[in-house]
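Two proteins follow. First one:
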Amino acid sequence: MIPDKICLRGLALIALLGAAPLQAGSIDPAKPPQPERVQAVHEAEQDVDRAWEVYHRAALGGTVASPALQADIEEHLHKARSLITQAHEAAAQGDSRAVNRLVSQVKAHTSKAIEESKEQKK
């Protein structure tokens, strides 16, 4: 079927783009980021990677409940990636409150994506 081929190619593209690691160096080299901030962002980044893996297994296995749910999951995952970039910038600037807020948002998006990825077709 043509929609299956399109979907499979789309998933392959998402896998390739989603697997690219994001890196942000320090904006102000005179003010190095604090290790705990960097660690929090790194852990959140690993959560996003795990969420993408759970989603990809479900999508490739054909167990995602619906196309609408698949789109919702992808939206959560893309938002989480975007927040990771912002968290890297906040860590580089030494902004602990922003890092904590952004990491919390990342965790909410990844948890929702994982939960929805585990929903089975009815």
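Second one, unrelated to the first:
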Amino acid sequence: MKSNVKRTVAAMTVEELRNFVKQVIEAERRKDCYVDDDGTLVFYTEKGYADYLRKVGKPPSKVKAAFLNEGGLKCRYSDHRLTPQEKRRLARIRKQTAEGRVVPGEVVLEKLRKRGIEI
């Protein structure tokens, strides 16, 4: 296809126009997402990922998609629903954390070492 900027659409063949449209679509898609080696649709932003989930109308576990976080890691939303037990446990943990009642990391590491787990 000629790269003359002043060329009109009327002067293009159907095949040239088709190729041009494909190029534009591919360029726009490259900005938003790509498909990785595993076939996962990877979005560059969480917003793009969230928009995609909303458009397809499926829960995260039913689509093969992810987004890149600030550190470059692939992340997915979860559609797991917390049970009443899990909600109570999380509330208790949040309360303990807010009150400063947390276990120091050294204590946790020592307990793991006693169980034969080295980190």
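SUMMARY FIELD: The two ends are 59 Å apart (CA to CA). The chain has a mean pLDDT of 87.
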